[in-house]
Amino acid sequence: MIRTEHVVKRFGGITAVDDVSLSIDKGSITGLVGPNGAGKTTFFNLIAGRFPPSSGKIFLDGEDVTGLAPHDLFGKGLLRTFQIAHEFTHLTVRENLMTVPPDQAGETLWKAWFMPGQVRRQEKEVAARADEVIEFLNLTHIADELAGNLSGGQKKLLELGRTMMVDAKVVLLDEVGAGVNRTLLNEIGDAILRLNKERGYTFCMIEHDMDFIGRLCDPVIVMAEGRLLASGTVDEIKSNETVIEAYLGAGRDRAAERAKA
Amino acid sequence: QAEVKLGVILGFTGPIESITPTMAAAAEMAMSEVSDSGKLLGGETVTSVRADSTCIDSAAATAAAERLVTSDNVAAIVGADCSGVTGAIANNVAVPKGVVMISPSATSPALTTIEDNGYFFRTAPSDARQGQVLADMMKDQGITEIAVTYTNNDYGKGLADSFQAAFEAAGGKVSISVPHEDGKGDYSAEVATLAATGSKELAVFGYVDQGGRGIIQSALDTGAFDKFVLCDGMIGDSLLEAFGDSLNGTIGTLPGNDGEGATKFLELAKAKGIDGSGAFAPESYDAAALLMLAMEAAGSTDRAAIQAKVLDVANGPGEPILPGELGKALEIIAKGGDVDYVGATGVELIGPGEAAGSYKELLVDGGKFTTVQIR
Amino acid sequence: MSAILTRTRLAYLGIIVLLLLVGVFQSWSVALVMINLCLISAVMALGVNIQWGYAGLFSAGTVGFVALGGLAGVLISEAPVIEAWDVGGAGLIYSVATLAALIAAIFIIMSVMKPGTARRIVMTCVILGGYFAVRYFFDPATDAIEGVNPSAQGFLGGLGLPILLSWPVGGLLAALVAWGIGKVALGLRSDYLAIATLGIAEIVIAVIKNEDWLARGVKNVSGLARPMPKEIALQESPEFIGWIEWLHSGALSTVTGDERIQMLRDFAQQDAGTFVKLIYMLLFTVVLLILFALAQRALNSPWGRMMRAIRDNEVAAEAMGKNVTKRHLQTFILGSAVVGIAGAMLTTLDGQFTPGTYNPLRFTFLVWVMVIVGGSGNNHGSVIGGFLIWFAWVQAEPAGILLMDGLTFFMAPDNPVRLHLLDAAAQMRPLLMGLVLLLAMRFSPKGILPEPIRTAR
Amino acid sequence: MSFLIGKDMRGGYGGADILNGCTIGVDKGQIAVVVGPNGAGKSTAMKALFGMLSLRAGSVTLDGRDITSMSPQDRVACDMAFVPQTNNVFAGMTVEENLEMGAYLRRDDFSDTMAEVFDLFPILKEKRRQFAGELSGGQRQQVAVGRALMTQPSVLMLDEPTAGVSPIVMDELFDRVIAIKKTGIAVLIVEQNARQALEIADIGYVLVSGENRFTDTGEALMADPEVRKSFLGG
Amino acid sequence: MFALMSNFVFVPALTYGSQLALGALGITLVFGVLRFANFAHGDLMAFGTMGVVLITYWLQAHGIGIDPLPTALLALPFGIALAVGASLLIDRTVYRFYRKRRAAPVILVVASVGVMYVLNGLTRFVIGAEDQRFFDGARFLISAGDFKDLTGLDEGVTIKLTQALTVVVAVLMVAALFWFLQKTRTGKAMRAYSDNEDLALLSGISPDRVVAVTWIIAAVLATVAGTLYGLDKSFKPFVYFQLILPMFAAAIVGGIGQPIGAIIGAYVVAFSEVMLTYAYKRALMYIGPEGWGPEGLMQILSTEYKFAISFLILVFVLLVRPTGIFRGKVI
Ligand SMILES: Nc1ncnc2c1ncn2[C@@H]1O[C@H](COP(=O)(O)OP(=O)(O)OP(=O)(O)O)[C@@H](O)[C@H]1O
Ligand SMILES: Nc1ncnc2c1ncn2[C@@H]1O[C@H](COP(=O)(O)OP(=O)(O)OP(=O)(O)O)[C@@H](O)[C@H]1O
Ligand SMILES: [Mg+2]
Ligand SMILES: [Mg+2]
Question: Which residues of D touch E206 (CB under 8 A)?
């Protein structure tokens, strides 16, 4: 579905993504993990067209999409969420969601002016869909609140909600779990599985919660210092020495020790 | 008894705000002279109602003029100053409402031809005339090449154009003609360009307290020019106060046909603490004086009646009237006599109601303006 | 929701009351003059609100578009100056053709040659050569044009069409230029965009001021045609007189003879002014209503929602498939066009085109103040802001004089303090204007009519 | 009476109250952990404790002193430190400057503390001259915590310090928090990584709709099936 | 040749640039710390300078002076005090309200337009709209005559005392400000505050203090700039008010929020105005062979477009470097 060839991204002297070639299979839920600053978010930004790579090529569904703008990629069915929530602060939660669907009649000026009937009909559909998403995310009580006034976790939920507003081909999730209540996160995991199974979405998700990754992802890709470190099933990764050293640490045992202390 | 009101609409805020207070004061000086004489329409007093033309904002000026005319019920208007707002007020307020307005400073030739129904006059001559006078003067001085800078509005541009045409017709050469914007912070670029032509003299067509002064200062500072040719807007004592002897040899023109009226006006102004040499101050005095004399001649403050009399009192035949003699003039008119208002600038209104334009040729000598001759 | 509605109604009511007060205490004529300018200001504010309130574009080039609208007034309504076309038209057309050729050449070089030093050198040579080639035709042509009866003409004139046509054309002209500017400058962020547009507006005005062949530059074009007869023509027209007689038949029947003629003349003079102003008011109101309706519908549609989303977070909007650049350009053009229409309306009302008028403080920042005080993002707010600020702008002056008079009434008429204060009364205008502005913002920091939160569906 | 305690706090952002009488306290040498669903008011409670939100009712006391109406910067002077959930770095300043700002009120030499922070978060040392705004999400989080540590506080309040932080750093962080509390500092943490956090907590609060739903030791809460199911993700 | 360029191009542009720089510095500082474009800065300049002018007149009337330096330098502290007082009062009564409410920057911008009008009116109310000349003391450091005598060249270089003074003060001010912002605690606190107000609070930085210090510095800069400008040219409120546009242009070209940027930007604006419209004819005549002279004036662009040019350059700079020469702030 997504394939990159020798993708490099430099910021001044820093090489954030360094010669990454990988592919994400159609219909998979691929996990992307790695230590802080490994270049994961940057890699997402490259795929999603936030900025062009310094070199290398990116393919979406076999088509070369290197350097395309984000809105073009959105048009090709690629959606992404942001690690640091990018909500529309002065729009309500519902409006935030309703903004997402593409090709709304009312987004063309002359239709907005002269074809109010069609616009209204479509608005109803979009609103209904938004309300479904809102309900699913437990945001019903604040559907009319300005998104800027949400709590940190609620904003992350909204990020996720936007990807549920359209039928996407590929969804890039950048740490949707961070700051989200674990019980709710489990439900989100279920939803991701469902979307994957029933609608055939391809997911690629960055996450630091290995339990969550373990439950959803196959395969898992590990990045460190801008490079590809390893890839494989969750269990392979979890037992990979270099990955443990660079990323996972001896977490399990230490937690147990702590509990005793 | 009811007061007679005259509107004074000038740009109290905006680009020429530094010269308008003096203009207004001069106009009001004429009013108080008349009031004090107690001879207008049998003892009426005249008060001024000021309004702000902003010099550039036609819309605000129109609103202000409308207020003067319909709310304050002024009998006539002294103003406005800049040609743009003057045109707007004349077209949209004064002429439709039938109110006389006499502008002391709008010199644009285009105003000559506005459809004014006879209600618009000016005590400042049209630029076309002054350009000719300046050209003649220069020819006499033996100047054959000169650099010109003008304030970038219709006054400056019009004057520069007419001067250039006249000068070149007389065989002179304008090496460069550079506009300057008033109220800006720095004029070194203009002066640098002017200096680069190698001309020895610089003609400055602008305002004495505005960009024109900035140009002269910059020119003196850099030593680019030391002899200037000035138009009427540039003549003022404040220029001499600022630069004094460094201006010696500078020549200029000022409307007026003999020294007497101007001298009397200066004395009067001085007694009142007004800088009578300020740009367009004498014209403002004359504008107000004319209106009041016309009022007396009309025997009423009726607007249309005033209009009918302006030209009568401005031009001969009749007793010549100088500044400070307004009381005397009113008396003569009341007795049915004729006056010929000369005033501070030698007022002589021609055809479409504007000053005929005789000019004094001035020379700066020993840090003072001295009149060389009349043209 | 209903609270907002009441607030809006109250605001309109307040404005109406203010204007009525002007009518009663000053004169109806002044009130009408003010309403007309208020209407134009409201249109301008609407235009700026489209740019800032909808899309968050900090454009400070308003004055340039006002001027372009005004220019349309001249280009449409003035009679063509045939001699000027004769002497300079051909040269001007050659220079335009040369310019087109130059631009074509640039594009060809861009596409044919590879980037590098060679291209840069060729490019520089072509541009320089082209520049002089254009000047070669342009300079003599414009000199000739400017030489045609310079004190009254000296320009190409216009098309001699009805001036009302200049309103849409002014909008189009502004839109066209906005398209060019937008292409270049819209990539800039907030304040940088502001200063760039400010600069471009200065350039536009510099061109209008200094290219005399176009519209006489600073020499002004006065006596523009009107959409209705002039007052003095009306005063003479028998139909109008007849109409006046009918209107004032009551008052006129009490007098006869000369007195009646005099009275009729007075009425005619008075009513001709009112009549003209009323027609303007009607025309302006129609324009405002149409533009307002369109703006309102756009804002409340998904389009408006999308624009607000873009305003809030461009990165996210881009990721949600919105073409931010295109939309920015669209709103920039729309807003500029509205401002251009207002500019043409203003020139029509003034009856003259005076480039010296176009000062950013008056037409850019004052309009901004209108939008912010009214409430950005709210079309009603822009209208209210336009009305209120224009009101304050005009009334601050008499208020200043009144205040000074009031403060010093107890002093002797020739008390120097009193004289100084009265002399300085004109300076009360900015002071009061500033105070009104600060107070208005203090009591409603988000504008008199803040942007509503769209909760209802 | 706890060292720092917000009692029966009520208040919000102007509209309806977000805090409906919740009580949160922590003692010296203790770690208190606050958990709860998104939007429960955890961050709001933290802000209230730090004086960034005016309370309609209830009080905040520090060491027995009522500080309800004290300004945030004065609370810093009282040795309180807070890492907010969002916007918690000076994006336009370098990492080093961020840390220096943490020590703004300190007049002594703080190079030791800085060295300690660099020890804890080695990546920061590497990036000390880079603008914090250019860091990755997790790196920013480390800067934020580092800044708070620079004040050498007696109360340390962390709002989701581990959000977006990689497991290895998270472990380090929790280790460090334990070390900090052992020096007699009161630590108050809001966490969604609730299980790890409750493991080290002396006292835990479950906040729902601005009210205390459960309050117990960390262990006890972990053991409570209802808490696990509804709030800790099973 | 050298003299020519120096007289008409270099010295005036340097002076004008320095004058702009001092003003732009104040604008950039307020922008950098308080995050809004302060339109009232020009009028604050006028207001402070008004104080200087009035005190100067008083001093002159009492025969107090420091010849050959202008008396105004003695009066400067009073003007500064006046401006500082005014800006603190204005902040207290106007800006603080919006700051506390976290109003959007544009609200503050418009509030500053209100302040601009008020100061505008106030200044003229007190001192009038007319031109004031308060310069005394020695006029020239090197006059054309002296220079010719000294060097035997036939074109004289002139440098006015005020020009030298302006340049020196501008350089000193920038150095001091730069040092202050980068190295002192208060300076860093100011940057921190501008970066993230909430977090600054959490670091124990007192916002009131930061804001006060900012206004004090801005007022000092404004008054000094205004006084130097007034000494070199003359004091007229309207001109000060008009200076705001080139000052903004300078601040933004340089990269707003960056002190060095303001300085460089100011020189870019000043030099571009003078150099691009300069007629190079005479200069070329010196370089070229004897008796040779170009046909036209060799002017790149005519002075009509002086302002347009400086803005053109500005637009060009922004297109190449969208946040100014020294990466300025983006809000
Ligand atoms: N705009 C930028 N300018 C300079 N450096 C940058 C920029 N954006 C990212 N970096 C650097 O690139 C590296 C990779 O950052 P990235 O955000 O991709 O990390 P990440 O893998 O997502 O980490 P995390 O898990 O913490 O979110 C980091 O070292 C960061 O400092
Ligand atoms: N600035 C604000 N203005 C208005 N309401 C707000 C604001 N900030 C938060 N809220 C509301 O207050 C409620 C509690 O927010 P808070 O940030 O305290 O939640 P939280 O418990 O920290 O959630 P999370 O775990 O998602 O961070 C939320 O419903 C949110 O919508
Ligand atoms: Mg990341
Ligand atoms: Mg929170």
Answer: 73
